[in-house]
Design goal:
- The protein starts with a helix and ends with a helix.
- Helix 4 crosses helix 7.
- 63% of the residues lie in helices and 0% in strands.
- The protein is mostly helical.
- The chain is globular, with a radius of gyration of 17 Å.
């Protein structure tokens, strides 16, 4: 996932239009691939299956910041997780609402202020943006039904191994 995790920085700190555009496209191509991966495995709760892995944790740290700060701060305006990537959005909501300790260790005020006040070359007036509101959308009954079905499917698979 280096095309995503460090790609946001390569786009955001690009010194030429060409470099920015190249890296911005790489970021969104990577998001497209991740979205496709999840859409092709609709019963996977995590990126690689029924169990959380290091990939999920690394991806979470990027995606939780994407709509909140990366999108506007690093000029990644070709889409948002919330509106353009439904499978990644559900995955992100699951990580935040259902994985013990994740919500408790996510501080949106700190995330936004850290970026908006520490990069004078990107944001010279250090203005911290509002939104999105809410930071993470609620976990819905539809989401919970999907999670229960996915867990039931993964239990069935384990029974046949």
């Amino acid at each position: 996932m280096p095309n995503l995790n460090s790609g946001v920085y390569r786009a955001g700190f690009a010194e030429t239009q060409e470099s920015y555009e190249e890296n911005c496209r790489i970021v969104f191509a990577t998001l497209d691939r991740l979205e496709t991966r999840l859409s092709n495995q609709p019963r996977n709760i995590y990126m690689l299956g029924p169990r959380i892995t290091e990939i999920d944790l690394k991806l979470y740290t990027t995606l939780v910041r994407f709509d909140a700060i990366y999108q506007q701060h690093f000029k990644l305006m070709m889409g948002s997780i919330r509106h353009n990537y439904p499978h990644l959005h559900r995955w992100l909501k699951h990580m935040y609402w259902k994985v013990v300790g994740v919500k408790e260790s996510t501080d949106f005020k700190h995330i936004k202020e850290n970026y908006s006040k520490s990069h004078a070359d990107v944001n010279p007036k250090a203005i911290t943006p509002l939104g999105p509101d809410p930071d993470i959308e609620d976990w819905t009954e539809e989401d919970e039904q999907w999670r229960r079905e996915a867990e039931r499917d993964s239990e069935g698979l384990r029974g046949h191994m």
